[in-house]
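Q: Please design a sequence for this.
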């Protein structure tokens, strides 16, 4: 019953520009490096390329602190380089979406600098300012996502300004219609250049509750006062009316700290807000955070998928995502056993490519890039990790304890540079990489996997190819098979065009099939299907 759309069928690929490919030897990934890999992305089967922020920025949060929305970061190249990249993406029949950070700007943005220089200027009210409390403390007890109070004090104004993220990421005041006009003008400027849509950073945070009241003491104190504020739908509908609806655009909102239900409310086609959102609730099992070291029980993922696959209808569409630049490698949460890594990686590939929703792959996921053994806190580059490390030390933890806590969850885990070859620096750069690579690039790299027909890369290509050939895998009805069978995940996908069956062993041990379906094996993570399911075995069959 779905209305077919190009973005519903698309396989999207997230690029973290700083770590993807360096073309000029300065150790930093750049746009011309991305350009040189467009044929690699096309061969993988990518339809949409999502670039993490490439705008001018002091890089306090690696570009999620934008200083100029209309200027390409000098480290990444020029606007001419961008125009050439966009043309190269379109020439290969792919689309390009930009990462837009609209909840906050860098404190070095001209708007914020103007507010500081002249508090009577209109720019002051582009941000969120409050007097402190009588005792000199901040206006409320909110904590930032990065382990600090969420307010900066500016003596020249004797006022505090809000920052939900780093001290250099200042929250914009979306209640100000002039600010909103500036945002719409900027977004249309990019759409008029020919970009095909946006990934919208923490878009659900843009509306804060009246009065900015104190929050419940907790991990991120105050979050209940802004994750889903009173004007959110009003702003999203205005964004859609003023920008997205004027172009054939695709939008995906990052629903930071939201449950699936509220995410759906932002994506109902009838409400004309966003096309899709990201939900991350399956990234860790209950009781675990991204800093936890544990074996992820895939039975939990099965339950999550069975709950969410049925929620699509003509009005709502989901995304499927397992990795991004904020979370450790999902593969390494499933297993770190050398013999299990390949089957587990192929399980994720086959699962992702046979479910309903817009599918997202993060750079390196297609290679089975995995857990990085950081050696020392001095290797961290991620502001979230560095702040967390400092906070743990301030709470009396030893350096070793603080390092051991942060290392598994630092966002540097998935920002370690792309592994292209077994040559020096994994072929990422001829210079000194801005962040160390994983030591295993001598065996885990695109060049070697290209040549190996049984590699994770070639399995991703095959799984994506099956999805493209058989649109039933996108739009067909999802029906679980033997759902009560632990460690087993079976489902069919069916519509008028055909019927497919997927069987997956969610465990690391051999598993008897609970049911036999007679179909044609289209793709198997072990190449063949035998009498019992091997560890993490995943098979796709055509039934008709
Ligand atoms: O992420 C927001 C967000 O949810 C992450 O900060 C996440 O909560 C945290 O890393 C999990 O521990 C977006 C961007 O994806 C992230 O890179 C930025 O740091 C952040 O917004 C601020 O722009
Ligand atoms: Ca470079």
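A: Design:
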């Amino acid at each position: 019953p779905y209305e077919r759309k190009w973005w519903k069928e698309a396989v999207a690929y997230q690029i973290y520009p700083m770590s993807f490919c360096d073309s000029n030897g300065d150790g930093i990934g750049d746009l011309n490096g991305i350009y040189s890999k467009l044929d690699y992305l096309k061969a993988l089967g990518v339809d949409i390329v999502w670039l993490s922020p490439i705008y001018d920025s002091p890089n306090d949060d690696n570009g999620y602190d934008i200083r100029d929305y209309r200027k390409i970061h000098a480290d990444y190249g020029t606007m001419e380089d961008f125009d050439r990249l966009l043309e190269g993406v379109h020439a290969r029949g792919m689309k390009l979406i930009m990462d837009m950070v609209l909840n906050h700007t860098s404190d070095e943005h001209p708007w914020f600098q103007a507010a500081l220089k002249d508090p009577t200027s209109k720019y002051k009210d582009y941000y969120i300012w409050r007097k402190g409390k009588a005792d000199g403390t901040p206006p409320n007890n909110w904590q930032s996502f990065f382990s600090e109070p969420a307010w900066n004090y500016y003596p020249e104004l004797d006022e505090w300004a809000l920052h939900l993220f780093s001290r250099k990421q200042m929250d914009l005041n979306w209640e100000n219609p002039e600010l909103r006009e500036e945002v719409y003008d900027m977004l249309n400027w990019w759409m008029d250049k020919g970009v095909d849509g946006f990934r919208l950073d923490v878009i659900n945070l843009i509306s804060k509750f009246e009065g900015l009241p104190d929050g419940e003491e907790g991990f991120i104190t105050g979050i209940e006062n802004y994750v889903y504020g009173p004007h959110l739908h009003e702003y999203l509908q205005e964004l859609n009316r003023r920008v997205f609806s004027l172009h054939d655009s695709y939008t995906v909102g990052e629903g930071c700290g939201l449950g699936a239900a509220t995410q759906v409310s932002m994506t109902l086609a009838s409400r004309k807000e966003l096309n899709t959102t990201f939900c991350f609730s399956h990234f860790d099992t209950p009781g675990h955070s991204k800093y936890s070291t544990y074996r992820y029980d895939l039975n939990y993922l099965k339950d999550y998928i069975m709950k969410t696959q049925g929620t699509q209808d003509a009005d709502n569409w989901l995304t499927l995502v397992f990795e991004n630049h904020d979370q450790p490698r999902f593969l390494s949460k499933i297993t770190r056993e050398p013999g299990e890594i390949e089957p587990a990686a192929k399980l994720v590939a086959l699962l992702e490519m046979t479910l309903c929703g817009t599918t997202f792959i993060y750079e390196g996921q297609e290679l089975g890039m995995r857990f990085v053994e950081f050696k020392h806190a001095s290797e961290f580059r991620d502001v979230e990790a560095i702040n967390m490390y400092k906070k743990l030390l301030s709470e009396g933890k030893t350096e070793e304890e603080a390092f051991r806590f942060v290392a598994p969850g630092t966002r540097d885990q998935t920002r370690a540079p792309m592994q292209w070859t077994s040559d020096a620096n994994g072929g990422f750069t001829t210079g000194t990489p801005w962040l160390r690579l994983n030591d295993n690039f001598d065996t885990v790299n695109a060049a070697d996997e290209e040549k190996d027909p049984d590699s994770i890369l070639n399995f991703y290509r095959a799984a994506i190819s099956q999805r493209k050939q058989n649109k039933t895998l996108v739009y067909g009805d999802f029906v679980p098979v033997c759902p009560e069978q632990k460690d087993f995940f079976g489902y069919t996908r069916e519509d008028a065009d055909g019927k497919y069956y997927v069987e997956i062993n969610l465990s690391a041990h051999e598993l008897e099939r609970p049911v036999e379906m007679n179909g044609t094996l289209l793709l198997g993570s072990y190449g063949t299907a035998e009498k019992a399911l091997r560890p993490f075995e995943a098979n796709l069959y055509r039934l008709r």
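Q: Thanks. Anything notable?
A: The chain has a mean pLDDT of 96. Residues 22-24, 26, 28, 30 surround calcium ion (ligand 2) (CB under 6 Å).
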